[in-house]
Amino acid sequence: MHTVYIIYSPSTDKYFIGLSKDIKITLWQHNARTVPATADGKPWEVKFSQSFETRREAQSLEMKLKNRDRAFWEDLINSQQPATI
User: Fold this and answer.
1) What pLDDT score does 47 carry?
2) What is the pLDDT of residue 22?
3) 27: domain range?
4) Which secondary structure element, helix H or strand E, spans residue 83, and what is its range?
5) Where are the beta strands (DSSP E) in the chain?
């Protein structure tokens, strides 16, 4: 399974969108500051995730989400529904 996720850092008030095969390990890496793009944001918390059978499907959603704005992400997070972009 391939998972698209949105994580949030309360300390920096920023979101990060990514793709992972193991969300638990990925979240640990973000919080361990091993990912340069998120090193300053500890602690990170998962706000949204959606899994797909293929990497291609997951990459498609990841790119679509990255091209949207914060208001869209927050609406998606608050709806707790699968993304249908």
Assistant:
1) 95
2) 94
3) 2-79
4) none
5) 2-9, 14-20, 45-52
